[in-house]
Design goal:
Shape: globular
Strand content: over 45%
Number of helices: 4
Number of strands: 13
Strand order of the largest sheet: 6-5-4-3-2-1-13-12-11-10-9-8-7
Oligomer: single chain
Structural class: alpha+beta
Radius of gyration: 22 Å
Order of helices and strands: HHHEEEEEEHEEEEEEE
């Protein structure tokens, strides 16, 4: 067997060092998010969407495990030629509609137009939150987003990449968002949000593949204590009846 000279050994070590550094540089938050976007359907397909609609069942639980409410919502979003959409749902006593068109929020309750400014503000927040949730991870790469790679952690029995998603308009009082991506598939498995009065962890349990995209199908939201442990199940979400239309 040929002996390795000191010069050859040095070249080998330097090659490994360069390779390790390159690999480390390539493993950035942007790279992880880009890979996740491709896993979930690809940015080209997402940017080609004209409309997206689906049903969302939301069940809220109290701390003792009893059901606080159970509502089925139908959500529709229009992306082209301009952003619009509507959210409809019913309870025992009310039928509600939130409509967004031409950058204006309109709300009806039992076919009556809502004019209260505080209710309209809440309606706008509800629409924006619904759009934000269904647009993940596609909406993580834009000029207003700041991504930070926080390393590999364990989520249940899986290794995941932990990414912090912040925004240029954030202040010290803003909510803090963290997302977790499977290290093998880059599928988005969970997210944690730190709010003013509590911290929540949302786990993506199953996924819908009935369209060109991988959307969440069932999710569970837990309240966490100060040490990061689950205290109780706050909500379950189930999405179905996805429909897409392209430009």
């Amino acid at each position: 067997m040929k002996e390795i000279t000191p010069k050859e050994l040095l070249v080998f070590i330097l090659t490994l060092f360069v390779f390790a550094n390159c690999a480390k540089k390539q493993l950035s938050a942007e790279t992880i998010v880009n890979n996740s976007i491709e896993k979930h359907g690809g940015i080209k397909a997402w940017n080609s969407l004209k409309t997206l609609s689906f049903d969302k069942n939301v069940t809220l639980f109290l701390e003792d495990g009893t059901i606080e409410s159970a509502i089925k919502k139908h959500q529709e979003f229009t992306f082209y030629p301009s952003l619009g959409g509507k959210i409809t749902w019913k309870t025992k006593n009310e039928k509600s509609l939130i409509l967004y068109e031409k950058a204006t929020i309109i709300k009806f309750v039992n076919d009556s137009l809502v004019i209260n400014l505080e209710e309209l503000r809440k309606a706008k927040n509800s629409f924006n939150a619904a759009l934000y949730a269904i647009s993940q991870p596609f909406n993580f790469l834009n000029k207003n987003t700041i991504l930070s790679y926080l390393g590999v952690v364990h989520l249940k029995d899986k290794k995941v990449y932990k990414i912090k998603v912040a925004y240029k308009s954030d202040t010290k009082k803003s909510d803090k968002w963290f997302y977790y991506f499977d290290v093998k598939t880059f599928k988005m498995l969970s997210n944690k949000v730190i709010l003013k009065d509590h911290t929540s962890l949302v786990e993506n349990i199953t996924f819908d593949t009935s369209t060109d995209f991988i959307f969440n199908q069932s999710r569970k939201s837990y309240r966490l204590n100060d040490t990061g442990d689950k205290t109780y199940l706050r909500a379950t979400y189930f999405y179905d009846n996805f429909k897409t239309e392209y430009q």
